[in-house]
TrEMBL record:
Keywords: Aminotransferase, Pyridoxal phosphate, Transferase. SUPFAM superfamilies: PLP-dependent transferases (SSF53383). One of its GO terms (molecular function) is transaminase activity. The keyword Glycoprotein does not apply. InterPro entries: DegT/StrS_aminotransferase, PyrdxlP-dep_Trfase, PyrdxlP-dep_Trfase_major. Its EC number is 2.6.1.-. This is DegT/DnrJ/EryC1/StrS family aminotransferase. Belongs to the DegT/DnrJ/EryC1 family. The keyword Transferase applies. Gene3D superfamilies: Type I PLP-dependent aspartate aminotransferase-like (Major domain).
Amino acid sequence: MITVTRPYFPERKNFDRYVDAIFQSRWLTNHGPLEQELTRRLETYLGVKHLLLVSNGTLALQVAYRALGINNVVGQREPAEVITTPFTFIATASSLKWEGMQPVFADIDPATLCLDPAQVEAAITPRTRAIVPVHVFGNACDVEAIDALGEEHDLKVIYDGAHAFGATYRGNSLLSYGDASTLSFHATKLFHSIEGGAIIFKRKEDLERARKMINFGITGPECIEELGINAKMNEFQAAMGLCVLDEIEGNLESRALVWHAYAQAFQGNVQLQARQPGVSLNYAYFPIILESESVLLEVMQRLEREGYQPRRYFCPSLESLAFLGRPAADLQDADFQQPEIVHSRDIASRILCLPLFSGLQVSEILAAVRVIVDRHQKAA
Ligand code: T4K
């Protein structure tokens, strides 16, 4: 079965070299030498400063919220509100709820699939503390408009850049916008460290606060300065990250071949995500948007018969999940109205991510392309 993704496995010999270094140093975790090397190399590769490695992309979000103080509302009875997108992986919104904040969903732009800044502005209330947009499938959000809203309304902006590894916007790293951006290095991502993640902070003082937080707030043998958690990356994760990074160019080239073959085959046939002008391609995902959910279900069934397992990233649209909603008592609050979500619901019902990973041969996707294009021509 050709699944939607397959983890990248680097050269075994290269991995063994890093593992030998771990056995020699006798250092396994807590800011070891490989974690430090990976930090430096990622800052250079991504063209960013103030990067902090953490144990996964969900903790990257949670630690970023805390380091920026958005969950900490003194003298306020209701939880802080944070505006985010309903069209994303569950972790973007569940991490907010988990940290005691209330996700408020604003609708997406139906072409780029990223948060619509006008909808964000309409959702701002006196209780709003932050905006958490997602560069979904590696596309850039409207970062200028969103950063301007953050400044104008004194809101922190944390971009969930889990899909945006290596993406640039107008020549600079897409991860350099907002107060912070987060990354996921999960095994299924184009760059991975088995599990892992990173936060890129705008300000050095936020990085330093977060660095303490991910090691229980400990700053010395008898010194615990503040509340913290364990979110450190260990040396085996860093070793995998280093050898995946050693081979990143070949990985990207291989993904690019498949990505462009899909793009060429579907151009003018099937609706594709509109790229934000100025954003580079990182070949992270290949989503297609079908005419309706029933067409999507039929296409999925036929693809499965041909040996493909695409995925409905991201379905359902998250505003539909009751456990992310406001507590019942709050619902009577006249101040609050969950903005109406139209586009995210619609897109979530008919979007499908096709198989895309390094090593997948263009010839292996042809049957999938045929199934989809045939179905489209039948419908037209
Ligand atoms: N924000 C956003 C926007 C995100 O997309 C994510 C994660 C996060 C935050 C949180 O970051 P992390 O805390 O995860 O670092 C996968 C990933 O688990 C998840 O990291 C990712 N987003 C999400 C988009 O995709 P699932 O539920 O689709 O994973 P799973 O296990 O079904 O794997 C997908 C396919 O990959 C399978 O069909 C087979 C293949 N696979 C997977 C694994 C783990 C393999 O062949 N081998 C493997 O070892 O969530």
